[in-house]
Design goal:
Elements lengths: L12 H6 L22 H8 L9 H9 L7 H7 L6 H16 L4 E6 L2 E6 L4 H15 L2 H13 L2 E2 H8 L4 H9 L3 E6 L7 E5 L1 H7 L19
Helix pairs in contact: 4-5, 7-9
Length: 227
Amino acid sequence: MLRLVRDEDPIGYDEMEQEDLSSDPPRHTSPLEEPDGVVDDSADDQQNGQADETPVNLALMEALLLSTHHPLTAGRLAELMDLGSTKPVRKAIKELNQQYESTGRSFRIDQVAGGFQILTLPEFGVYLKKLHQKEADAKLTKAALETLAIIAYKQPILRADVEAIRGCACGETIRSLMEKHLVKIAGRAEEPGRPILYGTTKRFLELFGLNSVKDLPQPENLPPPKG
């Protein structure tokens, strides 16, 4: 499903060229989360001695997932619901999805960008695209989509390589994608001049409903992207 992204305050392109944005901004992490957002269930169970069997308020979990535009990790959900481990969270998500399936609902709880989010089923994508087509077109032009696809599949990649594939200058397009927080500086190449390498962001994963770049559709004879 195509997820729309709200534009935020523009970020200076020159500043981002000078700053290494390969790491995400610092944020609060719960005791149940690793720094990169990955939850370590085994460590959690060791702290509690055994898996927490506390009943989960399914309505509360559903409300939390419906009230946010960004994925929530299992650790964050457990923290918000005052649970001692993440196992009850995962069990509750499975139970909710079973309820949605048995009652023919149009959505499920899916894992996206390391967290969980309520998303509509793929078969409704055509109709949702019609609903959001005008706004989506205004946000990402054909040139932006082409450039973003090249970066997503080839990352980390130099701007010169992106331009070689597209056959035209891409500086302004990359600037636009960075301002929309879909592309970031992923490091510098080990060659003369240390040119900048570009990659996609977590916002990109959220926009396209992916858990990682490895979930991108894979054309034949093309190795999966790194990351």
